[in-house]
Amino acid sequence: MPFKDLLIVFIWRQFSVRYRNSVLGILWAIIQPISMMMLLTFVFTYIIQVKTGSYPKPVFYYSALLPWTFFVGAVNGSVKSISGSQSLVTKIYFPREILPLSGIFVAFLDLLIAGSIYIVLLFYFNISLNYTVIWIIPIFIVLIIFTLSVSLLFSSINVYYKDVGLIITFLMRLMFFATPIIYSIDKLSLKLKLLLFLNPMTFIVENTRRVILEGRDIVLWQFLLALALVLILFHVSYKIFIKIEKDFADVI
Amino acid sequence: MSSDPIIELKKVWKKYKIKKQTSRTLREDIVKIFSNKFDKELLVQGEFWSLSDINISINNGESVGLYGPNGSGKTTILKLLSRVTYPTRGELTVRGSIAPLISVGAGFHPELTGRENIYTNGTMLGMSIKDLKEKESAIIEFSGLDKKFLELQVKNYSSGMNTRLGFSVAVHSDADIFLLDEILAVGDTKFREKCAEKINDLIGQRNKTFLIVSHQHERLKELTDRIYYIEKGKITDLV
Question: How many other C-beta atoms are found inside a 10 Å radius of the C-beta of residue B45?
Answer without folding.
Answer: 7
